[in-house]
Amino acid sequence: MYAKTDFLDLIPHAGDMCLLDGVDAVDGDTIHAWSTSHVSPTHPLRGPDGLHAVHLAEYGAQATAVHGALKSKAGGTAPPRPGMLVSLRGVTLAVGRIDDLPGRIDVHAQCLMADDNGAQYTFRIEHDGREIASGRVAVIHPPM
Questions:
Q1: Burial degree of 96 (CB within 10 A; 0-12, 13-18, 19+)
Q2: Which of 125, 104, 138 is nearest to 54 (CA)?
Q3: DSSP assignment, residue 80?
Q4: What fold characterizes domain 2-140?
Q5: Residues 76-105: pLDDT tens digits?
Q6: E strand segments, 8-127
Q7: In terms of Cα–Cα distance, which of 10, 128, 107, 18 is closest to 63?
Q8: Best exposed site among 11, 62, 93, 142 by fewest CB in 10 Å?
Q9: Rounded Cα gap, residues 53 and 96, in angstroms
Q10: pTM: predicted TM-score of the whole model, two decimal places
Q11: Apex 37 CA angle, 33 and 38, nearest 5
């Protein structure tokens, strides 16, 4: 289990833009993170009509960043390389907005492949045991 303070300095998402609150489980290929930030009235992605479900893709993408960072830290390797989200594919949304969902959301991601150039993940987000979003994320690591 990891609290936000365990990974906040390892990822580029700072302050309120770090949407994940904690990690329940992580291994070499998967991560199970969670958040309650979706109900915050000061959520940085919230619009005048609330928080649209499309922003769940950002939760999935951040889970991939946290996964890579925690793997790098656990392996004692160099700090994680910066990544750039380049593709979202096959995104499905089962709800229209998320700011009205009480409690926490669970964010699951699985690494499909990763190398020095980037990574591809699938993600699945659940609320109360019900899948509310899923998709694939591709990230590249720009040359340093």
A1: exposed
A2: 125
A3: P
A4: Thiol Ester Dehydrase; Chain A (3.10.129)
A5: 766 677 889 999 999 999 999 999 999 999
A6: 22-26, 30-35, 84-93, 105-115, 118-127
A7: 107
A8: 142
A9: 5
A10: 0.94
A11: 100
Tallying the residues shown for the chain, one arrives at 144
In sign, the C-alpha dihedral spanning 16, 5, 12, 137 is negative
Pairing of strands 105-115, 118-127: antiparallel
Q: How confident is the model at residue 111 (pLDDT cuts 50, 70, 90)?
A: very high
Spell out the domain ranges in the chain.
Answer: 2-140
Q: Of 30, 3, 43, give the one whose Cα is nearest residue 107.
A: 30
pLDDT at 73: 84
Q: Are 68 and 119 in contact (CB under 8 A)?
A: yes
